[in-house]
Amino acid sequence: MAKFKFKFTRKQYINRSPGGTFFIALVCFGLGAVMVLPMIYAISSSLKPLDELWIFPPRFFVDNPTTRNFTQLFEIMSNFRVPFTRYLLNTFFITIVGTVGQVILASMAAYAFAKHKFKGGKIMFNIVVLALMFNAGVTAIPNFLVIASLGWINTYMPYIIPALVSALGLYLMKQFIEQMIPDSILEAARIDGCTEFGIFWKIVMPLIKPAWVTLMIFSVQALWNQSATAFVYDERLKTLNYALSQILGGGVARAGVGAAAAAIMMIVPITIFIISQSNVMETMSTSGMKD
User: Fold this and answer.
1) pTM of the entire structure?
2) d(CA 268, CA 224)
């Protein structure tokens, strides 16, 4: 008769002194303060009058806060040939469509690479990893030739299509799927009669939510600051980032307006990050489901 041995393990607790806990909290607070300081400085600069912006040595906090910079910014935008709302709507449309498309396509491709074995799969994924090494400036001319040959000049396509095929997004999702989703769950779903798309949508996507939320943050940050001036010449199709950059071309007198524009541009990415920061932290953790 086979003998079974049961091994009992005692749960371990971290034995840390109050002084150690205080020291760790102090270090975390210091690191957090360093990360927050640039945002505080940007907001403080947007509220500075012009004389404080050019004072030397520069001051971190504003002495006489004013909203004149924001008022002047909207006055200048109201005098544009294209309404300010058009730039804003273009930016929101590009950001939303590009982000949703990138998350879905990257997730589907990553699921195929991670959980399906097919001929040439490793070579194709190695090409994706190799693409991570190239700077956007290196591929600028080939991208322009491809977009021009497809007839996408002066359309929304140059904003959206390159974002849909992000190598970083595919790599991130593929690694997360391999770590977090055991093959046994997928096999059980197939035995129960679930289709491949049903497995992907009902099982894989909910389990990898931290990964695609993290990818969403990266995508929003990139698309929100997109200008694509090399592909789009129609003023009605340009983005908020381009419009604000034109304002900065007014010289020293528009330094305060430029500070207000920088503060406005960082609102959306920071807000999305704050809302989804718990999922980002979960993505960075190394714990996961194992077979």
Assistant:
1) 0.77
2) 8
